[in-house]
Amino acid sequence: MNVRPDFSKNANHAETAPAFLSVWDMHAYYGESYIVQGISFNVHEGEILALLGRNGAGKTTTLRAIARLDDPQVNKGEIWLDHKPLHNMKSYEAAGVGLGLVPEDRRIIPGLTVEENLKLAQIAPPIGWSIDRLYDLFPRLGERRNQEGVTLSGGEQQMLSIARALARDVKVLLLDEPYEGLAPVIVDEIEKTLRVIKEQGMTTILVEQNAVRALQLADRAVILDTGSIVFDGSAAEVLENEELRAEYLAI
Amino acid sequence: ASHSGFTNAPGDSSVTLGFNVPQTGPYADEGADELRAYELAVEHLNGGGDGGMMSTFSSKVLDGTGILGRKVEYVTGDTQTKSDAARASAKSMIEKDGAIMITGGSSSGVAVAVQALCQEAGVIFMAGLTHSNDTTGKDKRANGFRHFFNSYMSGAALAPVLANAYGTDRKAYHLTADYNWGYTTEEAVKSSTEAMGWETVAAVKTPLTQTDFSSYIAPVLQSGADTLVLNHYGGNMVNSLTNAVQFGLRDKQVNGKDFQIVVPLYSRLMAKGAGANVKGIFGSTNWHWSLQDEGSKAFVKSFGTKYGFPPSQAAHTCYVQTLLYADAVQRAGSFAPCAVAEALEGYEFDGLGNGKTLYRADDHQCFKDVLVVKGKENPTSEFDLLEIVEVTPVDQVTYAPDHPQFQGGALGTCNNGA
Amino acid sequence: MGILEVKDVNKRFGGLQALGDVNLSVKENTCHAIIGPNGAGKSTLLNCLVGKLIPDTGSVLFDGNSVLGRTPFEICQMGISRVFQTPEIFGDLSVMENMMIPLFAKRDGAFRLHAIESVASEAELRTDAERMLEEVNMLDKANMHSAAMSRGDKRRLEMAMCLVQNPRLLLLDEPTAGMARADTNNTIDLLKEIKEKRDITIAIIEHDMHVVFSLADRITVLAQGTPLVEDSPENIKGHPKVKEAYLGEAA
Amino acid sequence: MDAIILQILNGLDKGSAYALIALGLTLIFGTLGVVNFAHGALFMIGAFCAVTLSRLFSLSHEVLVPGETDFLGNPKTKDVPYIYDWFGESTGAAIIDWSVPLAILFAIPVMIAVGVIMERGLIKHFYKRPHADQILVTFGLAIVLQEIIKYYYGANPIPTPAPQAFAGSFDFGAMLGFDPNTIIYPYWRLVYFAFAALIIGAVFAFLQFTTFGMVVRAGMADRETVGLLGINIDKRFTIMFGLAAAVAGLAGVMYTPINSPNYHMGMDFLVLSFVVVVVGGMGSLPGAVLAGFVLGILESFASMREVIDIIPGINQVIIYLVAIIILLTRPRGLMGRKGVMED
Amino acid sequence: MFGLEKKDARLLLLVAVLVAFAPFLLNPFPEGSAMAQFNAGYPDLMQRFVIFGIFAIGFNILFGLTGYLSFGHAAFLGVGSYAAVWMFKLLSMNVLPAIILAVAMSGLFALLIGYISLRRSGIYFSILTLAFAQMMFALAYSVLTPITGGETGLQLALDDPRILGTSQTAGGNIPVPGLFGLEMRDSAELVLGSWVFTFNVGYYFAAIVMLVAFYLSIRIFRSPFGMMLRAIKSNQQRLNYTGLNPKPYTLAAFVISGMYAGLAGALMASMDPLAGAERMFWTASGEVVLMTILGGVGTLIGPVLGAGAIKYMENIISKINSDILHGWFAFLPDGLEDFVVAIIYPFIGKGWHLTLGLIFMGVVIFLPGGLVEGGQRIAALFGRKKASDDDSGKSAKTEPAE
Ligand SMILES: Nc1ncnc2c1ncn2[C@@H]1O[C@H](COP(=O)(O)OP(=O)(O)OP(=O)(O)O)[C@@H](O)[C@H]1O
Ligand SMILES: Nc1ncnc2c1ncn2[C@@H]1O[C@H](COP(=O)(O)OP(=O)(O)OP(=O)(O)O)[C@@H](O)[C@H]1O
Ligand SMILES: [Mg+2]
Ligand SMILES: [Mg+2]
C-alpha cells in the first residue's frame, strides 16, 4: 500500500508540484510532554526547506520524529517519503529508503576512528559518496582519518557528521544546525556543497539559527513556534516580511 | 505460650518440632533426605506407618501416641547452609511457631551456630549431620546433642584399616578444606595415621570456594607421597576426588607402591556425585543402609517403602535423633529442656542401627560403632555405591572428654529459657 | 602584565602539534576573543588553562600564579570559570539545583560536608540564583529537569552557572552556537553589562563574527596551533590573511 | 624448575577455562554493555546439555534379573538402554561414552536458541535501562534458570565423565627429560585447552575480520545514530547474544568432565568471570582472554605449598589481590577501552 | 518538624507509625488459622526488617545518590558484627559500646577501602569493592579463624573476660546483650482473642535506631551534601570545573554508608550475638544491591521496602512445606487438592528461590521504579488526594537522581 494519500484537500498551503516528503498532522511527545502539536507540511523533490523557530520551538523534535527515532514518540500523524509510509518504519528502515539526518549534537560514535565512523555509514545500503570523495570535500577529515572521532575539534566533528550522512545515498537530507561551530569559510564551503547536491536532485530540510543565511539558500521556509506551524511559504517572503521576522525570528 | 517455666511449653494436644535443614544451596539434596526422615519419624511417633525403628529401639516407652500423649507436629525451615540463615530460621521456629526442639543441618558451622542459639533460647538442639570435633568439643553446649560421629572417630576407625590395607610405611599428603571442620579432620586423621607409622609429607589448605583442584593435585606426585588424603566434604570432595583421578594418580606407582587416595568422611550423595571415581577408595561413614542389624533393616524398609529408595546416613541420624528426643521426653515425663537433657545424658540404648550407643554426659556426644567403607567396584544400583569394609567397635573410637582435640569450651548448664 | 599570561605553550597529540609556542596575554577587565579555523587549537588552549589538559611545555599564569599542576577544581577556585563547547550541565538535576551548586562552591570552597543542613533553607543563595536566572531569562524554567531543555536553553543555563560564581576570568567556548538570534543578542547584552558592572575578564571563542565584533576588545587569531595575529577588532576585520584563512565572505 | 613448569601448565589450563567463560561474558557485558548476571546460568545450562544428552543416550527400559532381589527384597531389575537395543551393545556403549563430545553438537543449537530467546524476550527491553535494572532482571533470571535445573536434576553434582579414550594423564616430564611422574597432565585438560584456543580463535576471527564487531561496538556506544545509518542493530545484538550464549554453553559442556556439574556451578563462576572481564578491561576481548590466563597462572602459583607456607592464606585471596593491583595500576584494566562502563 | 519539609516529615511520621505498630500490622492473621503462616510479626523477623532496612538505607546513600555501585558493602556489615561481638566478649554485654565500636571500625575500613576503590569509577569501582570484600570473607573464613571464629562464626563463650560485666550468669549461662539491664530478647505478649502480639525490646531498640538512621538519611538527601552527590552522579566533569572536589564527597558518602552497614552489623550482633563470615560473602553484598533496586534506587523509603520484601520471602515463604499446603487446600476434593498443591509446591519451601527470582524479574519488568513505583500506582488508584497524601514514593521520586 505504498501510495501517498492525497492531503491536498486539507493542506494549508497550495502547491502544484507533487510533494516528495509529506508530513501530515504529526503529534510528537517526549513521554508526557506534548511537543509537536499537529503539524503538516510538504517538501518537494529537489527543494531546500528552511525550518526555523526559536530555541525550544520543536525543530529538532520534528526532525527526529521524521527520522523515526525512538524519542519523540509520534502518537498520531503520517509521514510519507516518495510514496512510502515512513510513520510505520523504524529509524533504520527510514534510513534504508533514503532518509539522512545530521543530528544537532553531531553524534560522533565514541571508540571509532574518523574513517570507521564513515565506514559504518556504508555498511547498510544504499551507499552514497565514496569515502575518498568525502575527504576531498573535507580535507581536514582526510588528515585525521585515524584519529578517534570524538577527539576532533567541534568543527571537525560537524564536518564528520555531515560527511557521514553523505556517505549514504540519501534522498532527503535533514540538517539540524549544520553550521554550528564552523568557521565562516567552512560554512561557505558547505553552503556551496548544499547547492551542488541540490542541483543533483537532493531534497533538504535545513534547521538553522542563522535564519538569514538559511533563507538565502532555501526555496521555502516553515516557521515553528511552540510546536505549531506559524508560517509556511517561500523563503523570499520571509526575508521580505519584517513583521514575521521580528515576531518569530527576532531579526 | 503460658508460663510453665520453660520456653515454648506445648499445649495439651500437640507439640511442635522444628526441622531446620538446608533446602537450598549445595546440600539441598542432603537436606531433602533429612526432611524425609523427619517426616517418617513424625509419622511413626504419631502411630502411623510400620513404626520403623520404634520396634527395634531398646527403650519401649514410645507407643505411637505422639510424645507424652501429644500429637507431634512440625515446622520446616531452610538453613541455606549459612549460619545466619540457619539461626534466622531456627529463631522463627522458636519465636513464631513455638517449636520446643530444633534439629537438623548438614554442616558443622550451622550446627554450632544453631546449637548456641538453642542454648540461649532454652530449647533442645538435636544436631543433624555435623562431623567437626568442635560441635561436641570446644563449642559444646548443654542444650545440644550430637548423634553423628566426628572427625576424631573417623581417624581412629580408619587408621587401622588403612594400615591393614596399605601397610604402615606410607607417606601421606593431605589436602584440607580451609575451615574448622577441615582442620579437625586433618588433625584427627594425621594423628591416628601417624600413630600407625605413616608419615605426613605435607598438608595443604584449599579454599572453600575452590572448584578446580588441579593446581593442588598436580604437585602431589612430585612430593614423594604415595597416599592422598582428601579432607574435603560435599562439592569440594566431589571435585578434588574427580580431579585426582583425572590426573591418573591411582594408576601411578610411588616408592614402589600403588598410589592411594583416602576420603575420611564419605556420604552416599557425595559418592554419587563423584561417580566411578570413588571405586576402591576408603573412607568412614556414620551409617549405611546395607547394614544388616534389625534396626537398620527396619528403618530401610519403612523409608524405602515410603520413598522408593534407601535412606542416606543424614536421614538416618535425623530420624534417630527425633526418636531419641521423643523417648527422652517420655522417660523424663516432661518437655522441660533440662529434664530432657538429663534423660539423655549418660543414656545407653541399642537398636537404632549402630549397635550399643552411649549419649555421653560430659559432652553430649554419642559413642557407637563406626563404619569404614570403600567405594564399590561393581555397583548394582545408583544407591549401592559403598561397601562396608569394617565395623569399628565403639571402644576403638572412644576418647576422653578432655582429649586434646576436644579441648576448650565448656558445656555450661542447661537452659530452660523463659 | 595581564591577568592571564600564556607563555610558549606547546601541546602535541601524537604526531599532531595542536598548540605550538602559544603566547597570549589577556588584560584585566577586557574581553579577549580567540578566533581561528576549525581545529586550530582554540578549545585545546582553553583546556590547558582549566587543567583539563597539561601542556607539554610552557607556562600559564593567572594573576601571577601558575595554574599548571593544579586540578580543575583548584583552578576554578582561583577564579576561572568555563563554558564548554557542548553544554555540560547536571542533567539529572533541576535548573535551580544546577544554579545552587556553583553558589555553594563559591561560598564554601572545594569541599564542605553539609550533610545535615537543608538546601531549602539557603535563602540567600537562592535569591542569588534567582537573580541570575532572571538575568538570563530562565526564571520560569527554574524547576525544570535540566536534561529536558532544548539545547539553546542548556547553553544559557551553563553560562548562568559560570556567571553566578562571579569569576574573575570567564572562558567561553562558543557560547552562542545554536542560540536563536534573539537570545544571542540578549547574551551579548548580558555579557556587555556584566563586563561593565563587574570586575571580570572574558576570553571568548566564537565563530559568529557578530558576537566577536560586538564584544571583543582584542582578538587573537589562531591557526594550526600558533597565533597568527593579535590586534584590535577593526584591524582584524581588514587583515587579508585572516580573511583568507578564516573569515571568507563573512567579513 | 619442574614444579614451575607444572604450575604454568596448570595455570594455562585454568586460564583457558577462565578465558573461555570470560569471553562469552565480555561479548555481552563488555560489548553490549549489559550487566548479565545470568551468564553463569548459561554456562551451567551448557553443562547440563551434556548431562541431558548422556541421560538421553542412557534412557533405558527395565529387564528382570532372575534370582536376585533389591534392598527391599523385591525382585531385582536391571536397566538396559534403548540405545543398546538399536545399535548393539558395543556401539551403544561407545555412544554413551562419547556423550560429552557429542553434546557439543547438541549444545550449539540449544544454546543459540536459549540466547536468542533470552535476548528477544527479555534483555532487549533493558539495553536502555540503568545497569541496576539489568542486574536485578538478569539475577532474577539466573535464579529461575538455576531453580528449574535443580527441580529436574537435583542439587547434587552429576558425574559426567570424558570418554574412556581421554582418561588418565600424559607424562610431559618424561618428554622434557625430567623424571617420570613429575609433570603429568590429564588428557582431557589438554583437549579442553585446545578447544578453548579454537573457540577463542574463531570468535576473534569473526569479530576481527568482519565489520560485525565494529557495528556492535558502535551500536552499544550510540544505538540511535547507528540506526540513523540504516543499520538494524537489534538484529545484530540478538546474534551477538546467541553467540555469547553458545560460547558460554560450550565452555560448560567441555567443563563437565573436569568438575561434575551441579545447578549452582554458574553462580560459583559468575563473580570470578566478572573479575576476569573487568581486569582484562571492559570491551576488550583480548583483554578478557589475557586476564583469564594471567589470573589462572597466578592462582596456580599461589596454590603451591611453598608459597602458602610463606604467606598463609595467599591462595584464598590471590585473584582478588591481583585484580586490585592491576586495577589500581592500570585504570582500565589490562586492555580496556575508554568510556565503556566507566560511569 | 525536625527541620524537615512537610512531605518528608509526613513520610518520617508514617514510617514511625508503621514501625511502632509493626507487631500488630505484621500479625494480621489469628494464631492457628491457615493464614497464620504469613504472619511476620515475631521478634526475629521484625528485627531483621529494620536492621536490613538500615543497611539498605545506608547503601542507598552511596548508590542511590552518587551512582557508585559498591559490590562489597557486606564487608562493613561483617566488620560491624565482629567488632560488636568482640566488645561483648571483652567489655560488657551493653549494646552501646558495641555499637559505637562497630560503627567506628566499619567507618575506618570504609575509609581505607573507599579511599583506594574510589580512584576508579563505574564497573572498575564495583569490582575493586567486590575484591576487597571477597578477600575479607576468604580470610575471615580461614586463616583469621582465631579472630573471626572462621566457619562457625565468632561466638560468646562462658570464659570470656567481659571486664565490665560477668562472664557467666548466676545460672551458669552466657549473659545476653542488653541496654543498661534491659535485655534485648525480652518480650511482652498481648493476647487479644486468638491473636497474639509480641513486643520485643530488641525490636523496638533497633526500630528506634532505624528511625534515627532514616531521619538522618532524609536530612542527607535534602542537604547540600546530598545535592552534590547527585551532581556527581550526573556530571563529575562539570562539578570539577565548578570548583568542587568530587573525591571527598564520594568518599564521605562511602564512609557514611559503610558506617550504616556497620551499625546494621552491630545491631544484628546485639539481637543475636554471633558474627559469621558469610555475612561478608559476595552474595550478601549482592543482596543489599538487590534490596535497594527492588525497592527503588534513590528513593527514600524504597530500600527499606526492598529489604523487607526479600527478608519476608527468605523467612516466610521458605517455611511453607507441602504439609501446610495440604492443610490450606484440604477443603478441596482430593484430586483437585493434590493438583493445586502440585502446582504451588515448586514455588514454596525449598522452591522459595524460584519465587524470589520471579519477583525480581516481575518487579523490574512491570515496575521500573521498584516497589515504590508499585506503591505510587496503587496510591494513584485511590485518587489524587490520597496520592498526594501518601506520597512516600512521590517525594522520593521527583527529587532524587535517576
Ligand atoms: N528528551 C526530552 N524530554 C522532554 N522534553 C524535551 C526533551 N527534549 C526536548 N524537550 C523539549 O521539547 C521542546 C522542543 O525541543 P527541541 O529540541 O525540538 O527545540 P529546538 O527547536 O530544536 O530548539 P533549539 O534551537 O534550542 O535546538 C523544548 O521545550 C524542550 O524542553
Ligand atoms: N585528544 C586528542 N587527541 C588527538 N587529537 C586531538 C585531541 N584533541 C584535539 N585534537 C586535535 O587537535 C586539534 C585542535 O583541536 P581544538 O579542539 O583545540 O580545535 P578548535 O580550535 O577548538 O576547533 P573548533 O573551532 O572546530 O572547535 C584538532 O585538529 C583536533 O582534532
Ligand atoms: Mg534543536
Ligand atoms: Mg573548539
Number of alpha- plus pi-helical segments of chain C = 9
CATH-assigned homologous superfamily of chain C: P-loop containing nucleotide triphosphate hydrolases
Largest sheet geometry of chain C: 6 strands, mixed
Low-confidence stretches of chain E: 385-402
Distance between the termini of chain E: 27 Å
SSE class of chain E = mainly alpha
Q: What structural category arises from helix and sheet content of chain C?
A: alpha/beta
Low-confidence stretches of chain C: none
Gross CATH architecture of chain C: 3-Layer(aba) Sandwich
- Radius of gyration of chain E, in Å, reads 22 Å
Number of extended strands of chain E? 6
Strand content of chain C: 15-25%
Element pattern of chain C in H and E: EEEHEEHEHHHEHEHEEHH
Ligand inventory reads: adenosine-5'-triphosphate, magnesium ion
Mean pLDDT of chain C: 89
| Structure summary, number of beta strands of chain C | 10
Indicate the CATH class of chain C. Answer: Alpha Beta
H and E order of chain E = HHHHHHHEEEEEHHHHEHHHHHHHH
Name the overall outline of chain E: globular
Multimeric state:
heteropentamer
Question: Could you please describe the fold and organization of this structure?
Answer:
The complex is a heteropentamer of chains A (251), B (418), C (251), D (343) and E (402). Chain B has 12 helices and 17 strands. With 418 residues, chain B is an alpha/beta fold. In chain B, the strands form 4 sheets. Chain B has a 7-stranded mixed beta sheet, with helices on both faces. A 5-stranded parallel beta sheet of chain B has the order 2-1-3-4-5, sandwiched between helices. In chain B, strands 13-14-15 form a 3-stranded antiparallel beta sheet, with no helix packed on it. In chain B, helix 4 crosses helix 5. The longest helix of chain B is centred in the last third of the chain and has 20 residues. Chain D is mostly helical. In chain E, the strands form 3 sheets. In chain E, strands 1-6 form a two-stranded antiparallel sheet. In chain E, strand 4 and strand 5 form a beta hairpin. Chains in contact: A-C, A-D, B-D, B-E, C-E, D-E. Chains B and D meet through helix 1, strand 7, helix 6, helix 7 and helix 8 of B and helix 1, strand 4 and helix 12 of D. The structure holds adenosine-5'-triphosphate (ATP) (2 copies) and magnesium ion (2 copies). Chain D: Its main location: membrane. Chain D: InterPro entries: ABC_transp_permease, BCAA_transport_permease.
